[in-house]
Amino acid sequence: MNIKIEQGESEDLDGINDIYNYYVRNGNATFDTVEWDQLLRAKWYQQFIDNSELYKLFVAKLNGEVLGFAYNSKFKEKQAFFTSSEVTIYIRSGSEGNGLGDKLYQALLSAISNTSLHRLYAVITIPNAASICLHEKFGFYQVGTMTEVGFKNGQYHSTVMLEKDISDRH
């Protein structure tokens, strides 16, 4: 399989939406309950243009098809959180287990290492052993649980928060 990891571009947004909206409809990995349209995805993409020094987007492609994406974004709205960032990854359903997560996070974390960020966070709906394992492989560790914090698909869902200290690379 000749998978390419590339910086995400505007032409990748339809593929990103296809992957993301699958999880909106069919799972609990995202707490969004309404699918994203092209306009909302374009507004989301603007963060990587406006804040390219901090926020990065990578896609995994096979023959031009987006099979997964990983990015980092603002952790919280309050200004004092500016040195922290949330990381997110999604793999197209049916493409799991091919090392895409590893490749995407290698690219993302390498790009982040050149920023002024201090801490990274991931929030994962549980149970999701594969995602937790992926994050732990890259040095994230669990720092908390939010019990029944979301309600989707007729039931409550809990999340775990994982953290990665990247301050030692400066």
Secondary structure class reads alpha+beta
Name the poorly predicted regions.
none
Give the ordered list of helices and strands.
Answer: EHHEEEHEHEE
Largest sheet: 7 strands, mixed
CATH top level of the domain at 4-120 is: Alpha Beta
Name given to the CATH architecture of the domain at 4-120: 3-Layer(aba) Sandwich
What is the mean predicted local confidence, pLDDT?
95
In the sheet with the most strands, the strands line up as: 1-2-3-4-5-7-6
CATH homology-level superfamily of the domain at 4-120: Gcn5-related N-acetyltransferase (GNAT)
Beta-strand residue percentage:
25-35%
The whole-angstrom Rg is 15 Å
Here the CATH topology of the domain at 4-120 equals Aminopeptidase
Question: How would you describe this structure in keywords?
Answer:
single chain; 170 residues; alpha+beta; Aminopeptidase; 7-stranded mixed beta sheet; 4 helices; 7 strands; 29% helix
